[in-house]
Specification:
Keywords: Membrane, Transmembrane, Transmembrane helix. There is one protein chain. The chain is mainly α. The protein has a domain at 13-64. It has helices at residues 17-36, 38-41, 48-64. The two termini are 32 Å apart. The relative contact order is 0.05.
Length: 91
């Protein structure tokens, strides 16, 4: 049995021990970054709700793949939101 090669089974991101170590280091580093620079971040916390609202179109772009990702219109007159309801996603 070969461990280093591709054995036909796709490995997920969270199955690798190295990825778990990377996530741990990023969490610890993020914690220390926030705690050490908390005094610099406090004045900007009032802008957080507005930044979250501004991030919505950006997240929509990444999550839905831009324009045309909602399916086409059909001849029954229903909107495009119902067009691909029973079909699996393309992503």
């Amino acid at each position: 049995m070969e461990h280093g090669g591709h054995d036909g089974e796709a490995r997920g991101f969270f199955r690798s021990r190295a990825n778990w170590v990377l996530i741990g280091f990023l969490v610890i580093g993020g914690f220390y970054l926030v705690t050490e620079h908390r005094a610099h971040l406090i004045p900007y916390l009032g802008y957080l709700p507005f930044l979250l609202l501004l991030a919505c179109p950006l997240m929509h772009l990444f999550m839905h793949g831009g324009h045309g990702g909602h399916g086409g219109s059909d001849s029954s007159g229903r909107g495009s939101a119902d067009a691909g309801q029973n079909q699996p996603h393309k992503y």
